[in-house]
Amino acid sequence: MTPIGAIATTLTVALGLSLYRVLAGPTIFDRLTGLSLIGTKSTILLLLFGVLTDRVDVFIDIALAYAFISFVGIVTIAKYFEREDDE
Amino acid sequence: MREVIALALLSGGLAFVLAGVVGILRLPDFYCRLHATSKCDTLGLALMVAGVAVLTPLSLTTVKVLAVVVLVALVNATAAHALGRAAHRSGLPPWRLGDPRPR
Questions:
Q1: Number of cross-chain residue pairs from A and B with Cβ atoms under 8 Å apart
Q2: A69 Cα to chain B: minimum distance (Å)
Q3: CA triple A43-A62-B83, angle to 5 deg
Q4: pLDDT tens digit string along A12-23?
Q5: Per-domain boundaries in chain A
Q6: Are A48 and A11 in contact (CB under 8 A)?
Q7: With an 8 Å Cβ cutoff, are A7 and B78 in contact?
Q8: Does B49 touch chain A (CB under 8 A)?
Q9: Closest CA to B72 of A81, A37, A5
Q10: CB-based contact B37 A14, cutoff 8 Å
Q11: pLDDT one digit per residue (tens) for chain B, 103 residues
Q12: How near does any CA of chain B get to the CA of A80, in Å?
C-alpha cells in the first residue's frame, strides 16, 4: 500500500469514529459538530482520492463544492434549532 | 524531495485530525467538543490540503487547492461560532466539575 493510501485509510477510520458522535450525541448540537467534522474529513478524502487516481483537477471542484454545501447546511440547521431561553 | 515534504505535511495534518477525533469522543460536553474539534480540524485540513498542493504540478489546480484552505479556514470558524451561539441561546448549560460525565 502506498503511504498516501495508508493515510487515506486512517482518515476513513477517523471518519467512522466521528460518526459515533452523530449517532449518540446527547443534544442536536453535538450531532451537528460531528457532521461538520465528517464534512471536513470528506473534503480531505476527496482530494486524496484525486491524488491516488491522478485526477486532482476533477476532484478539486467536487471538494470545493462539498466544503461549501456542508457549511451552508450546518449553519442553516443551527439557525433552525436556535431558540430563546424561555419557551 | 517533493514527496518527502508532501508526506510530512500529510502526516502532520493527520495527527491534528486524529487529535480532533479524540476530542469529540472523550470530552464531556458540547462546548468542550466544539472547542476541540473546530481548531484541530481547521489546522489539520490546512496542513493536509497543503500536502496535496505540493503533490500536484503547478497549474490552476494548485490555486484551487489552496482556495480550499482559505475557504475552509473562513467557513469552519463561522460554522463553529454559529453552532456555539445557537447552543448558548437555546440555554444549553455548560458542564461543570463534579457533574456526571456523559457518554
A1: 141
A2: 10
A3: 45
A4: 999 999 999 999
A5: 3-81
A6: yes
A7: no
A8: yes
A9: A37
A10: no
A11: 888 999 999 999 999 999 999 999 988 888 999 999 999 999 999 999 999 999 988 889 999 999 999 999 999 999 999 999 998 888 888 888 777 776 6
A12: 9
B83 with A36: Cβ contact below 8 A: yes
At B102, give phi and psi (nearest 5°): -75, 160
Residue to test with chain B: of A28, A43, A56, most B Cβ within 10 A: A56
List the alpha helices (DSSP H) in chain B: 2-26, 30-55, 60-89
Q: At what angle do helices B2-26 and A3-24 cross, to 10 degrees?
A: 20
Retrieve residue A31's grid coordinates: 450531532
ipTM of the predicted structure? 0.86
> What's this model's pTM, rounded to 2 decimal places?
0.88
- To the nearest whole Å, the CA of B74 is away from the closest chain A CA by 10
Is B75 part of the contact surface with chain A (CB cutoff 8 Å)? yes
